[in-house]
């Protein structure tokens, strides 16, 4: 399985309090998301403000993408949502 993360700006979804970013799995575009709570708990976001969440995501993009890669390897070309609890097992 080939997994690639396009280097596009992540998007903030205020309704769900998540940062959304794309992945491509064997050429199929897949939505990945990480919760604001996970960014606060594990990646140093100081608040739920969009700027703080994007900054935390950008500063830790590689480990976040690696976690998404692990999930995508398990589920295939399906959207993934990473919650704070998931990263407790990654630390």
TrEMBL record:
Among SUPFAM superfamilies, the record links this protein to: Shew3726-like (SSF160272)
Native source organism of the sequence: Paraburkholderia ultramafica
Q: What is the lineage of its organism?
A: Bacteria, Pseudomonadati, Pseudomonadota, Betaproteobacteria, Burkholderiales
- What is the name attached to this protein's record? DUF1488 domain-containing protein
Q: Which Pfam families match?
A: DUF1488
């Amino acid at each position: 399985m080939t997994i690639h993360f396009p280097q596009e700006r992540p998007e903030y979804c205020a309704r769900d309090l998540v940062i959304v970013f794309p992945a491509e799995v064997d050429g199929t575009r897949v939505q990945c998301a990480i919760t604001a709570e996970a960014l606060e708990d594990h990646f140093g976001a100081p608040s739920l403000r969009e700027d703080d969440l994007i900054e935390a995501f950008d500063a830790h993009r590689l480990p976040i993408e690696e976690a998404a890669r692990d999930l995508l390897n398990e589920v295939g070309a399906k959207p993934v949502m990473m919650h704070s609890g998931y990263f407790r097992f990654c630390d």
